[in-house]
Specification:
305 residues; Rossmann fold; four-stranded parallel sheet; globular
Length: 305
């Protein structure tokens, strides 16, 4: 297994409970798990993907992110993957809409507990956690995301009714943010930590961090969903080609892009997002779904062997 951060842990533990043993050598395994099979990205994964094909070793995918795997709208899928394990029905539907060719198996949410919505009723200032879109390991972040971080941050600084915490990854300037005496800063790591989410009245974030917030029942305003999907580094960037087919389907009900630059409207959206919402519950059912079922996962793996 190529372990991407903490994201393969639940799948690995489920297999170990059934007696499977993990090897560090791809040439001596009977099956292989990676978080993506885009063979143009990352030499470690590319070598594993090619090895699986050359040696006829079954290759399986576990989720690279808590977000639907729309990288396959940017790069051509590897057609020899045995099965792609996804979190919930919404993830599978997005993949179908972009024409993903390999079998899809829904096995549940692995990142956190799944809790009912917890309505926030702040007594004084609203405790806002802002987790900007973070750069890749090299420190690069495409300018469209840097600018969104910057504009959201400026909007939040203009709001007097909030107590603002910024949890950032990488260097602050790589996120296009800056120091302010009004802000509590936390230098985070991509390790699945949820402590800051629990302490907030409302969270503004994107991608995996945002999805974990919804799973934990905390109020969220999503960011980054009004931008065409993209991935890459400073030398190249790939863009989603079929965004129109799924963008409305997977967009979260509350989006910060609708209120950027308008502090009064941003406060109104926060107050609305801190209350129960049928639209949020519908989205949560589609994209968070049910808890991970380890036994079912292993059963489905064995069905392909």
């Amino acid at each position: 297994m190529h372990e991407h951060m903490h994201k393969g842990r639940a799948y690995k533990e489920a297999l170990e409970r059934r007696g499977y043993v993990f090897t560090g050598r791809s040439t001596s395994c009977d099956m292989m798990f990676v978080d993506h099979d885009i063979n143009s990205l990352g030499s470690g994964r590319r070598n594993q993907v090619y090895t699986s094909y050359e040696r006829n070793i079954p290759l399986f995918l576990y989720p690279h992110s808590a977000r639907p795997n729309i990288m396959y709208d940017i790069w051509r899928p590897w057609p020899f993957t045995k099965a792609n394990f996804v979190i919930a029905e919404g993830h599978a539907e997005v993949m179908r809409r972009i024409g993903y060719p390999c079998p899809l198996e829904i096995t549940g949410w692995t990142y956190t507990d799944i809790l009912p919505f917890r309505e926030s009723k702040p007594h004084e200032k609203i405790k806002v956690l802002f987790a900007p879109i973070h750069p890749i390991k090299s420190g690069y972040l495409i300018e469209i995301d840097r600018e969104l971080n910057f504009q959201v941050f400026k909007t939040l600084l203009a709001m007097q009714d909030i107590d603002l915490t910024v949890r950032y990854i990488g260097r602050l300037e790589e996120n296009k943010l800056f120091r302010s005496p009004r802000v509590n800063y936390i230098e985070g790591q991509p390790d699945g930590t949820t402590a800051e989410i629990e302490q907030a009245d409302i969270v503004i974030s994107a991608y995996t961090h945002a999805y974990m917030t919804v799973a934990l029942g905390k109020p969220l305003i999503m960011m980054g969903e009004r931008t065409r999907p993209h991935a890459g580094n400073q030398l190249w960037t790939g863009w989603g080609e079929q965004w129109e087919k799924y963008k409305d389907y997977m967009t979260y009900p509350f989006n910060v892009c609708d209120v950027v630059g308008e502090p009064k409207k941003a406060l109104e959206m926060m107050m609305q997002a801190m209350k129960p919402s049928k639209d949020v519950e519908k989205w949560k059912k589609l994209f968070i779904g049910k808890p991970f079922d380890g036994n079912y996962f292993v059963d489905r793996v064995e069905a392909y062997l």
